[in-house]
Amino acid sequence: MSVGAKICTHGGCDRKSVARRLCHAHYQAAWKAGELGQHVKLPPRERARTRCPESHKHASASTCFIQHQCRCALCVEAHNSRERNRKRLKAYGRFDTGLVDAEPVREHLLMLGEFGLGYKRVAALAGVGVTAVRTVLWGRQDPGPRKGEIPKRMKRENAERILAVKPDVSLLAAGALIPSRGTHRRLQALVARGWSQSKLAARLGMERSNFGTMMQRSRVSVALHRAVVDLFEQLWDQVPPHEEWRDGIAYSRALHYAQTRRWLPPLAWDDIDNDVEPPVPDDDGGIDETAVVLAMQGEGVRLTPAERRECVLRLHRERWSDGRIAEAIGCTDKTVFRIRDELGLAAFDQNDLRGRGAA
User: How does residue 94 score in pLDDT terms, banded at 50, 70 and 90?
Assistant: First the structure.
């Protein structure tokens, strides 16, 4: 008699099984005895009452019941309670999935990444799992057909915690790089108070040549920024000693150097770190020839509207393009285009400009 025609008597089962439909325990015994034939390669998976890891907290989420297939009393009761609550809320029209749009969170993480906070650091600060943050940025990493899929929604609690992390220098590592705007403005303000760059470099433990190079960089380390902030807090309201002959010369040169470049003193800034544009002096119609020359040389001098128009006029005579003029005097291409339009200056042909550049 074939296996499918046997009567399953295991555990009180007295019905005839058809097409090998035996009870689970009898089927396991038949497979182990080799009575099922060669076409059955693997035995059916035994259902254990607890499949989740020992360290897993039962009944804390649906992961135990659904994914780990745990059927302990705690997981079953918690799952049934969640299902009853979900159906009741749906019937009342108040069901909330607890999920929110993930796009604002993704943009916030990208902004924090540009500031210098990696996703692992953000996860630690927000108290969220690394996998949840990485999935929002780069998509699912688990092997399978959904690998690389970027989720459109995420848990509200995780989203609120991630959005609560703000870009703060105190959260960054000492070796991280940040924009140098706040660092440069503080040092320029101290020079405007009469502190020479040599004295500032010595107080920061830097060589004078390295100090000048740092003032030209677009990014500085967090450690240097913190040192500059501490130095600024000490010296912003103090005038350097200049009674001695050498100190007097350094004091006068620092004032002149800052004045020619129109560097602002400490109290001239509303927010020295976040102000996008520095205050521009009132336009009285006059033109400072020194400021114009320095700006045309790319020294980053603050210009009045009249001086900016004069720079555009002179550089246009040299057949400079709008982009090159904007880069030299520290403004945008649209500003150069507007000034050129006000002055009635025609744009140069790009082929002509390329030909002159190649020559």
Answer: confident
DSSP 66-113: HTS----HHHHHHHHHHHHHHHHHHHHT-----EEESHHHHHHHHHHH
Task: Render pLDDT for 252-297 as a digit per residue (tens, 0 to 9).
Answer: 999 998 888 888 888 777 678 877 666 555 555 578 888 888 888 8
Task: Count other Cβ atoms within 10 Å, centred on residue 202.
Answer: 13
Between CA 98 and CA 131 the distance in angstroms is 18
Give the residue ranges of DSSP H helices in 116-180: 119-126, 130-138, 156-163
Q: For 162-212, what is each residue's pLDDT tens digit?
A: 999 988 888 888 888 888 888 999 999 999 999 999 999 999 998 888 888
Do the beta carbons of residue 239 and residue 255 sit within 8 Å?
no
What CA–CA distance (Å, rounded) separates 32 from 27? Answer: 9
Rounded Cα–Cα distance for residues 189 and 191 (Å): 5
Q: How far apart are CA 26 and CA 46, in angstroms?
A: 13
What are the residue ranges spanned by the domains of the chain? 1-46, 54-96, 99-167, 177-268, 289-358
CB-count exposure of residue 58 (10 Å: 0-12, 13-18, 19+):
middle
* Residues in Cβ contact with 240 at an 8 Å cutoff, skipping those fewer than 6 apart: 193, 194, 195, 196, 199, 247, 250, 251, 254
Taking the C-alpha atoms of residue 331 and residue 302, their distance in angstroms, rounded to an integer, is 10
Express as a percent the part of the chain with pLDDT over 70.
79
**Three-state DSSP class for 50?**
coil
Predicted TM-score of the model (pTM):
0.50
> If you write DSSP's letter for every residue of 163-184 in order, what string do you get?
HT----GGGS-TT-EEESHHHH
- Cα 2 to chain centroid distance, Å, stands at 67
User: Cα–Cα distance between 182 and 229 in angstroms, integer?
Assistant: 9
Residues 6+ apart with CB under 8 A from 351: none
- Give the Cα separation of 96 and 279 in Å (integer): 49
Residue written as tokens 């006000």?
A: 342
